[in-house]
Write a structure and sequence with these properties.
Rossmann fold, alpha/beta, 317 residues
């Protein structure tokens, strides 16, 4: 097994799990209260998996789960553990990027396993997808208790290799059909923060998923402009928009002394940039900072097609 140099090759897909396999839970960013893991560990065991917790999951270093050394150590142990078949990141926040250049992925590259999470975990998705490895964009243990049944079931199916498609309704029609393309992306803010690094070295034609939370409307424009000027969208054939939630504007509603709105909401901003760049775009995909945060594969070849009254994203593995 070897790291890929281009998305034009087939993705490297970790082995799917079976009952009795070990799942590791670690915190690469914020710490998590032990009580907030009870539901998740119980459910994973109900699914037939064994669970191993990172040593510093509950260590409090202000917002973070311990020092950089402690968080890196927990993730490295999980990456190198030959028994562990998947790593679920406990929660997001901010801090995963601190680890990315400290981690040794050599054992992972020779024996890959599933990395699961979203939001701040986009750092890991982008880094590994850019090297040709598939990952799972999914809800995280801290959110299991509030996740919809569909979100949790999608994660279970994804881990087992039984997730074949995700259907959704878009307010924007899909005018053109595309062949099989690797799907990459994640949180827009995190992707923007990775510009210029080896973690965002996408190559070859691809599809892009985007979601975000708690941003000013003009911040969305700034990030899209930055990505555009950096030629990030050069090889993007279509964009799938997930949740763009809890967005804010310069208005009285959000604590400003007077209304001075940007003029477009987050969805409209991204759609306009895509149209300007000649990139197809659809919205309404059920993933992001939502209770209905459906799991799906990143870095894997996928295809977007039309159903009767919905769009269907299918995966090829």
């Amino acid at each position: 097994m070897w790291a890929q140099d281009s998305f034009e090759m087939n993705a490297i897909i970790p082995s799917f799990l079976k009952k009795g396999d070990l799942v590791s839970i670690v915190a690469t960013a914020r710490w998590i209260d032990p009580h907030d893991l009870l539901f998740a560990t119980s459910l994973l065991e109900k699914w037939g998996f064994r669970v191993k917790l990172g040593k510093h999951l509950h260590t409090v270093s202000f917002q973070l789960a311990g020092t950089l050394e402690q968080r890196t150590s927990d993730m490295q142990v999980a990456l190198d553990d030959p028994e562990s078949k998947a790593i679920l990141i406990a929660r997001g926040g901010y801090g995963t990027v601190h680890l990315i250049d400290q981690l040794d992925f050599s054992r992972f590259y020779s024996s890959p396993k599933w990395i699961c999470g979203y939001s701040d975990i986009t750092v890991l998705h982008a880094h590994l997808n850019s090297k040709g490895y598939a990952t799972i964009h999914s809800t995280m243990p801290v959110s299991f208790a509030n996740a919809t049944d569909a979100a949790l079931e999608n994660l279970r199916l994804a881990l087992l290799g039984d997730l074949k498609e995700v259907s959704f309704k878009s307010s924007i029609p899909l005018l053109h059909l595309y062949g099989s393309l690797p799907l990459v992306g994640g949180n827009l803010s995190v992707l923007y923060s990775l510009l210029g690094s080896e973690s965002l070295a996408n190559k070859g034609d691809l599809a892009l998923f985007l979601e975000d939370v708690d941003e000013m409307h003009y911040h969305i424009d700034r990030m899209m402009m930055g990505l555009k000027r950096a030629s990030f969208f050069k090889n993007v054939k279509y964009v799938i928009l997930g949740g763009l939630t809890q967005m804010r504007d310069n208005t009285v509603e959000f604590g400003f002394p007077k209304d001075n709105p940007w003029g477009l909401n987050a969805n409209e901003i991204i759609v306009n940039y895509c149209k300007e760049l000649g990139i197809a775009v659809v919205d309404g995909f059920p993933a992001g900072h939502l209770n209905d945060n459906r799991a799906f594969y990143l870095g894997m070849n996928s295809q977007l097609r039309k159903g009767n009254d919905e769009l269907i994203l299918t995966f090829q593995h």
